[in-house]
Amino acid sequence: MDLRDLVYKVYERRLERKLTSIQAPRHVGVIVDGNRRWARSNGHEDVRHGHQKGADKISELLVWCKEAGVEYVTLWLLSTDNLSRDKKELEPLLQVIENLVDDLVEQGWHVKPMGSLDLLPDHTAHVLKNAKEATSHRPGLIVNVAVGYGGRREIADAVRSLLQEHASKGASIEDLVEVLDVEHIAEHLYTRGLPDPDLVIRTSGEQRLSGFLLWQSAHSEFYFCEAYWPDFRRVDFLRALRAYAARNRRYGS
Questions:
Q1: Which parts are annotated binding residues for Mg(2+)?
Q2: Measured on CA atoms in the order 52, 54, 55, 60, is the torsion positive or negative?
Q3: From the candidates 82, 102, 103, 236, which is the catalytic residue?
Q4: 0.70 cut: is pTM over it?
Q5: Catalytic annotation on 33?
Q6: Which listed residue (33, 196, 198, 231) is catalytic?
Q7: Lower CB count within 10 Å: N or C terminus of the chain?
Q8: Whole-angstrom Cα distance, residue 202 to residue 34?
Q9: pLDDT digits over 124-149, tens only?
């Protein structure tokens, strides 16, 4: 261990001690951004090296979350916009995601896919559905993997599902207008039944949500980290928890 690693380890332990008495966020959302830029900055022409390095980081994050007492983690792995990428990049990325999901199943996590699975290749959708079925009974930390996910599309899908549900009961649009409120829409989101995220983390220095959990993040706290996702360290995670703990949550006021 070199001097820099030793200094970080000491700093990490100090952060950890300060956080032991602090209430952890129940639900953490993570925009795992910067894999491609990490690959290029490290001399890799093939960006799949970045995607794989980023996938390897996921397991570390989940352990950190479990240790901190987090109950739900939502990982944005692939947006609906990403599906329009060049086939030469998209196919390897989908393979990395499929392997990651299989690994999460083997590691014992409770995996829940969220997104427009109908937009994904059949094999990728099949892997995600199998993961959900194979792990639905598992207790502990729930890992939402957002693949083929877009916040606007989620809301559109929720409204569509809501309309279909009421139509199946013979209700008219006028009937629905009379009773419609935010809770009705929330019940049809991909995250239905789960608490909204308390904390949203985005790596790579970008300071925007890009459509991640648009509805659910209305009262979330945000933490933006300069590190590319593959370089995200436990000390960065602890800093995010410290920043969250220091906030005075006002829930919209």
A1: 33, 221
A2: positive
A3: 82
A4: yes
A5: yes
A6: 33
A7: C
A8: 10
A9: 999 999 999 999 999 999 999 999 99
Extract the annotated binding site: 33-38, 51, 79-81, 85, 202, 208-210, 221
Quote the CA–CA distance of 147 and 113 in Å, as a whole number. 7
Which pLDDT tens digit goes with each residue over 202-226?
Answer: 999 999 999 999 999 999 999 999 9
Q: Which amino acid is at 17?
A: R
* CA distance between the termini of the chain: 47
What are the tokens at 74?
A: 């939502």
The tokens for 60 are: 């570390």
| Structure tokens, 43 | 């001399």
Q: Binding site for substrate: residue ranges?
A: 34-38, 51, 79-81, 85, 202, 208-210
Q: Report whether 98 contacts 105 (CB < 8 A).
A: no
CA distance 104 to 11: 30
What are the structural domains, with CATH classification, of the chain? Answer: 24-151+197-244 (3.40.1180.10)
